[in-house]
Predict the 3D structure of the following.
Amino acid sequence: MDLKKEFGHIRFVILGGTNERMETVANSIAESFWPVPLGQKLVPIGSTTRYVLYRTGCVLCASHQMGMPTLSILLNEITKLLSEAQAKDVVYIRLGTSGGIGLEPGTIVLTEQTVNGYTEPYYELVSLGKLTKMQTEISKDVLENLLSVSTKSKYPVVKGKTMSVDTFYEGQARLDGAICEYNDEDKSNFIKFLHSKNVANIEMESLLLSAFCHKLGIKHGVICVVIIDRLKGDQVHFTADEYSSWVDNTTNVCKAYIAKELGIPFSF
Ligand code: R2B
Ligand code: URA
């Protein structure tokens, strides 16, 4: 493959969890900016056994599945690919869902700092039998631009700290997992502690994204929608329409950002 011809023009990498979601995101971006000719459709590039990769215009959309280990593989492989292709000044954006802390479902959190399960701004990596702490830092200019295009968002948009952990249940203080070795009071104290530390939302990937990108000087941002307020419970309650509307709104904020960066029109 002529990598420079195929990927040298890429300016944005949009990352999200599931294959289906990233197919939808890629089609939505294509429809707004680079419509596919009638009778054709976007097809994933290469093998789809571990993740899907779609290209539309100067945007790559990829699925990373759940958690930091799978995201790590994707980030290494995409970054090597884009480096070989000599793509310049590429911005990585994660779109995702999250549990909010004191925020209504539908609210978008634009991450201003990522923290681990101890609320520290480090991703801990064991390599060659040794623990390394990789510092995390979100790109301020990407955050500012995301905020500036979010004024037309259908739902509230806030900036805040995002905590990323390796598990959905124990690491996020849920009481409804198969293993739960703490009680309601312990859980509630932990969630309140996170609130006091200004953690706005909890999910499972952004910490690694900001550690990896900060290390390599890659500009990046995180747009996560809140689907539950963890001060109120552990289980989500929404209709399919509400969920789609919230999640589609993250795509719209992302499209507004891309449009602004490229100087092309877009309205929500
Ligand atoms: C948000 O949702 C997933 C867990 O359900 C996980 O990938 C995340 O970060
Ligand atoms: N994703 C998470 O990781 N946690 C939540 O509470 C919701 C979505």
About this structure: The longest helix spans residues 240-262. Residues 108 and 225 are 4 Å apart (CA to CA).
